[in-house]
Write a structure and sequence with these properties.
329 residues, 5-stranded mixed sheet, 15 helices, globular
Length: 329
Amino acid sequence: MTRRRLLLTTALVATLATGCVQGESDTATPAAGQLRLDYAYYNPLSLVIRKQHWLEDELKDTKVTWVLSAGSNKANENLRAETIDVGSTAGAAALQARANGTPIKTIGIYTRPEWTALVVAKGSPVTEVKQLKGRKIAATKGTDPYFFLLQALKEAGLGGSDVEVVNLQHADGRTALERGDVDAWAGLDPLMAQSEVDAGSKLVYRNPAFNSYGFLNARESFLTEHPDLAQKVIDAYERARAWVAANPDEAVRLLAAEAKLTPEVASVVLKERTEAKISPVPGAEQRAVLERILPTLVGESQVRSEAEARTALDSLFEPRFAEKAQASS
């Protein structure tokens, strides 16, 4: 082999080892001028921002990409895979993700919802949580409804091993309940409200204190590299909060259209079970909720260790963006 061919071959091997060739880039890493965030039916403010095109209109030189999150677990999967920069989850799911190694920070609070409860089918003989012992319960692991279920079982003197948890995404859990494939479902709005109205399902156990807040989370590397974009996202959320307060009926219509709900169901979700007039700044109130949930996460082995969970809780919040947005509003 000539010296020239040897050099060329060495360069080619080095290029292949890096996994890219000239003109290509790692698709998991956001390019300059790109913002990737999620929207979710359990996060009504995200629907408003997406519908109004505020970010697209303001960030003319930035490509804004929206990804649907079917649940907190999916938002966390996308944050972990670096396919989105900002995602919306429940507070307990954010804590679990960070405790288990996902490098995220909570930069804002979007709502304080009562978005989950334990649901049984119309005609079910079950009237209290302790009657669920030995029964099948549908739940989406890694989401607030699942953590709600664990807390409800603990309060009733039961544990996760006392029931058969059927791990289904939220919509599939609703279907399983209505078909009679499971005895109960740890529900999530708006699907839960829709099942109540359309199928006569019953909320057998409610406890607003067991619902964690809606957390807006960002990848740590994104915050380091693009703090300006993170601020724009939080600013847009505050604009959406004000918009929903000023246009409650239009917000109901938007949720109904996006999630394919009846106006009656959307109204229950937004007007009866969602509190949006709250401070966007993550702080003491949210920490208190997570402090209460943490022992359950540890006891049910939902985090790697209590020490890691405590460290995650101490380092989860990054309030500066919401503080700035709140001061400007």
